[in-house]
Amino acid sequence: MKIMVAIKRVVDYAVKIRVKPDKSGVETQNVKMSMNPFCEIALEEALRIKEAGLAKEVVAVSMGPASCVDTLRTSLAMGADRGIHVEAARELVPLTVAKVLKRLVEVENPGLLILGKQAIDDDCNQTGQMIAGLLGWPQGTFASKVVLDKEKQVATVDREVDGGLETLCLDLPAVITTDLRLNQPRYATLPNIMKAKSKPIKKYTPEELNVEIKSDLEVVQVTEPPKRKAGVIVSSVDELIDKLKNEAHVI
Amino acid sequence: MASRLLLKVLSKRRLLCSCTFASRSASTLVLAEHEGGSIKAQSLSALVAANCIDKDNSVSLLLAGSGSSLQAAAEKAATCHPSVSQVLVADSDKFAYPLAEPWAKLVQLVQQKGGYSHVIGTSGSFGKNILPRAAALLDVSPVTDVVEVNGPHQFVRPIYAGNALCTVRYTGASPCLLTVRSTSFPAPSFSADSKSDGASISQVDLSTLDEDSIGKSRYIKLSSQDTELPDLGSARIVVTGGRGLKSAENFTMIEKLAEKLGAAVGATRAAVDAGFVPNELQVGQTGKIVAPELYMAFGVSGAIQHLAGMKDSKVIVAVNKDADAPIFQVADYGLVGDLFEVIPELLEKLPEKK
Question: Residues 101-160, chain B: which have Cβ within 8 Å of A?
Answer without folding.
Answer: 101, 104, 124-126, 128-137, 139-145, 154, 157-160
